[in-house]
Amino acid sequence: MNNPIYSTVYQTIRFAAIMLACVSASNAYAQEIPSYKLATAYKTNTVGNPLSPWMLCADPTAVEYNGRLYVYGTNDQQEYNTTKNASNNTYGKITQLVVFSSEDLVNWTHHGVIDVKSVCTWCWASWAPSVTSRVESDGKTHFYMYFTNGASGIGVMTATNPLGPWTDPIKKALIDGSTQGRGTQSNIIDPGVAVDENGVGWLTFGGGDPNNKGSVLIPGNARIVKLAKNMYSFSTKDIIEIPAPYHFEANELNIVNGKFIFSYSSSWSGRSDSDWSKYKSDNAEKKVTAAKPSICSIAYMISEDPLNKDSWKYMGDVLPNPSNFGYPGGNNHSHFQKFGNNWYMIYHTQWLAKKMGFSGGYRNISMNKMTVNETTGVLTKVSMSDSGAPALTNTLNPYEWVPAETMANCAGVTTEAYSTRGNTVIANIDAGDWTLIRNVQFGEEGADSIQVKTVTGSGQLLVFLDRTTGTPVGVIDIPTGRPLTKAALSKTVTGKHNVFFVWSKASKIKFDSWRVFHPEVSEGIEEQTLSDSPSMGRGIYNLSGQRIDKLQKGMNIIDGKKVLVR
Hints:
The structure is a single chain. The chain is mainly beta. The protein is 10% helix and 39% strand. It has helices spanning 4-30, 76-83, 116-119, 273-282, 351-356; strands at 58-65, 68-74, 96-102, 108-115, 127-135, 141-148, 153-159, 175-176, 192-195, 201-205, 223-227, 234-241, 247-256, 259-266, 298-303, 313-319, 334-339, 342-349, 364-370, 402-403, 406-407, 409-411, 414-417, 424-427, 434-441, 447-455, 458-465, 474-478, 484-493, 496-507, 510-517, 525-529, 540-541, 554-558, 561-565. A hairpin with a 6-residue loop joins strand 11 (223-227) and strand 12.
């Protein structure tokens, strides 16, 4: 080497880079890993249902916003935690809604709960939500959340973000026993909201056993109302009955190409073949060919003139009771939602409670793909299954902060609220507990280090790829009082993987988020081989081909190789 400055600098850099690489490669294995017993999950790692692998929740509704699907539901977990499972789920302790969201439909972020009672101080319960959104004159997307206050009324909250903050625009029930124009209803429950192509809001509600003017066949409790422009008032003349056969509860409304699709849960009452024959005869002009709804199934009707009672046509079942698919029998509640180019049926079962070893009506939210004929409004019957919705092509980006509560599965842990609205942390962590994130895309350049953000406590976190056995690719020792901890991975991880975070040690620690990093340039230098090396001698050159005496910040050429000095 002709240039002594170049020779000294270059050799020093090469030595430092080699030593750093050796230290990084051995770092993950230098720490002692204590023995632990891996916790057992309730769901398997390859299925999508239930959406939450640990939380009891029900009565789903959903809205899409900025490429994410937000799913809300009744917080059965609140009732379970309050009663300590000493009684069946009466819903009497539930004053919160749960919120989850996902981009890929396999990894779901738990955003915590909406404390409805603190927003709508007049209410005493919050069940069976229904949400919609609309861009308003201020240019913002506004969200409108309707909910059941016990069996006595419907409330409404508004927000400009799907995670809130939520406000009560009218400080009272939107619909209750004093509302004129409802006629006779047994229960004022289960709102179902939708916005049509003209931006007009519509709301369905009502349920229960036949009212004093109804029958088992036509209980007479289903209603639809055209909402005012503000979405939280209406004219009493704009309420009509939907003559839904064997109607009971779980009202939902979708509007597809001008067709109003009203879905609902049918009752537990027995069905009479003669009654059904008479129903079809009385509605001969509608040419009803569908069989009568099965017990406690989700059935649906279609109309193009929703305030005309006689325009509603019964179409049949779309979602039989969970008991038809091997799940515990129970009530039925669903919402169907378009996300991207596909339609999905979101519903609840009691699968998770059964896996946890108890019963009592505690439910979990699940989702499967469905088929909707957008021209006719006809729905193809959906089968419930553990498999869930297929993963979308979206792959999780680990180079940005990923909430630890974003997961496809877990064992042993739960979540709890932390810091900002809509943020939770992984909590109740013991040795052997774990979380799974599916389809993490590390890319071609890959990652060679990881950083985690934790809250309180201490622990040791192991990073596994695709399985929880063998040697971890990362070992992260987290001391008490260190909120950010960074560690090297044992190799550069490239491509797509399922990532398991397994706790080998845990002492009062809570896990907030994580991210990985592309390989860093040793000592601020990155070396690349030139494909077309300029005809120049050994030494240091700039990109113009001029020989220089020392390395400059930016790109240099050393012996025909590009070297980036940062």
